[in-house]
Design brief:
Layout (H helix, E strand, L loop, with lengths): L2 H18 L13 H8 L2 H15 L19 H21 L2
Helix pairs in contact: 1-3, 1-4, 3-4
């Protein structure tokens, strides 16, 4: 997968940690209605590409964090970012599937 695309989408995923960090270690990270909010904020293609980038990152030992450049990457631990990637990937997959 292209590193520029990964940097763009995974950087945005890291940005989302800011909004969900308070609930990251709980079972319910995302509030009810968040799926609909996401789908209205950008195209289905955008979220599909985000999901594809997260899928790829989850197959890499470093979750692609060695080259993703985002200022929030320094704000959170790598463990928290990795946990968010896993939870957001699962949530986004369910969300996209429910919109078909």
């Amino acid at each position: 997968m292209d590193k520029d695309i990964l940097d763009q989408y995974l950087g945005m995923a890291i940005h989302f940690v800011y909004y969900h960090h308070g609930s990251l270690h709980q079972d319910a990270v995302f509030k009810p209605g968040y799926c609909e909010q996401l789908m209205q904020s950008a195209s289905r293609e955008y979220w599909g590409q985000m999901h594809a980038c997260l899928s790829y990152a989850l197959t890499q030992n470093d979750y692609c964090l060695s080259f993703v450049n985002h200022p929030f990457k320094q704000r959170y631990s790598e463990d928290d970012i990795r946990l968010f990637f896993r939870k957001f990937h699962a949530f986004l997959g369910d969300c996209i599937s429910s919109q078909k």
